[in-house]
Amino acid sequence: xxxxxxxxxxxxxxxxxxxxxxxxxxxxxxxxxxxxxxxxxxxxxxxxxxxxxxxxxxxxxxxxxxxxxxxxxxxxxxxxxxxxxxxxxxxxxxxxxxxxxxxxxxxxxxxxxxxxxxxxxxxxxxxxxxxxxxxxxxxxxxxxxxxxxxxxxxxxxxxxxxxxxxxxxxxxxxxxxxxxxxxxxxxxxxxxxxxxxxxxxxxxxxxxxxxxxxxxxxxxxxxxxxxxxxxxxxxxxxxxxxxxxxxxxxxxxxxxxxxxxxxxxxxxxxxxxxxxxxxxxxxxxxxxxxxxxxxxxxxxxxxxxxxxxxxxxxxxxxxxxxxxxxxxxxxxxxxxxxxxxxxxxxxxxxxxxxxxxxxxxxxxxxxxxxxxxxxxxxxxxxxxxxxxxxxxxxxxxxxxxxxxxxxxxxxxxxxxxxxxxxxxxxxxxxxxxxxxxxxxxxxxxxxxxxxxxxxxxxxxxxxxxxxxxxxxxxxxxxxxxxxxxxxxxxxxxxxxxxxxxxxxxxxxxxxxxxxxxxxxxxxxxxxxxxxxxxxxxxxxxxxxxxxxxxxxxxxxxxxxxxxxxxxxxxxxxxxxxxxxxxxxxxxxxxxxxxxxxxxxxxxxxxxxxxxxxxxxxxxxxxxxxxxxxxxxxxxxxxxxxxxxxxxxxxxxxxxxxxxxxxxxxxxxxxxxxxxxxxxxxxxxxxxx
Length: 688
Hints:
There is one protein chain. The longest helix is centred in the last third of the chain and has 33 residues, at about 625-660. The protein has 20 helices and 28 strands. The chain is about 30% helix and about 15% strand. It is of the alpha+beta class and about 700 residues long. The protein starts with about 45 loop residues before the first strand and ends with a helix.
């Protein structure tokens, strides 16, 4: 399903009252069952965890006259800002894409540590020199065609699973359409149920029904939990989990989860006969699953909600303020109002529940000006004459514009990974010729602007990809020859209508897709994070804390008092947490800790200052002559080695502080100085 196209996880604004801190705290008519879940939050205040990640849901406006997605969803926005903190300076890893962003949020580590190094699919070189591709949407324990785990650590082992600390603490964990924590493909069914099972037979003879029955929903149970017992439960196997993971069962698929819960409906009461699919799962459907799970002994739930800016029924994209877009946001807003009210009725509220809301990434809107120019989408709907990202055929462009016909394959994207067949060395003549050709590609007449537009914005080969945490050392065959970070108006591929194209015919505007992501542009890599619940301060909206998706996991675990069995690459967002809920080690030397964390993020995050500046240098190197390339690659390598050494020490200190060990004030200040010096070095090099 990824061969032809990207995987699409396929009114005046009136003041809405803020949900008060006592929402649902008065006696609930019915309480969720006692599951034996033992979270270790301060004073035992957190009894439930709900983490919801949207697909491309925006805090900032894409048209200055049109309220943003969150502005048009006040039931959610006001719940966050009235009871917790909305961080608006949140960021993605690279490349910025659904699977890699969700997995980074779930695990707290970048793609180099969980294996999803390039977005929706990644390539690897087979031994015979040809290129094979695997989907990054696969169940947690799946393996690639080359035998390595899809989710792989630098040591080549299966990446630790995010539900483990909770199930070890006696908590059942639910997954709703969230990347890789439930079955994602029909091939997963035989893995879990057995190749001769009735479920596998159904997958073979009736795949549509099998998708509805077994894909997209899962519960990972605590040991001995009745919910996953009986004939519906299956062994929850994690072959590489640190400390071993045995005696745990799971429920896989809507069919068996619904049987255990007595049926599942969306928030409007429409009974769901099966999983509705990843591509268009609505807020009403996804939140309906979450509410049902929470009400039936699954106190920790992860969920995904599809974007609101695509028409998931008719297969077209909406522009900001179009009537269909506004209508879908109104439906999402109603769903969140229903969701919070329903949870409160069963005693689940911000007084006992940690809520985490975020979006996998942002988007770049590809379209012209709206009609009328003053439309706001609320009182006056917007219409668009020019809308749709521009498909660009890289194979045709390389032949017609660069006179390069070298065999290669790519991951289709705005930021495609390029794999030259035969896996030539980075400094080989064929590689350098190809990179020079790619650097000069252009569209003679952009379909939206009418202007001559360079296709390539940045280039990164393995030296820089390592600096950006995009090299999967646990399966080196995944490392591409280079990555082309394209202009965000373009979706780059090698197939279809213009396979034999030349020059202008290599481009085609596609109105089915108008929201592009993948590259490093600010509107894509900048997103938001909402935190509500015990231990979270009510700061409203703040952009003062620079954070990224790796920080969600350590913050969640710090609040719930549980340890991971590995070290994350993120850090606890203690700036927005109540001090009395933090260990003493995170309260001591707080000013120094804040300075250390701030420098650490700019040094280590893929879209921090270090990453964006080295990406500039890498582009100059790959575009340059032999001498320029050799000199800059050497400097990038040295900078990366120095960064890894300093960032590693910073990360160790921050993780130790989260675990109860106070930092050494003098050592921390020395690390801050070293980090600042490194940032100054890379900025000077990029500027020169």
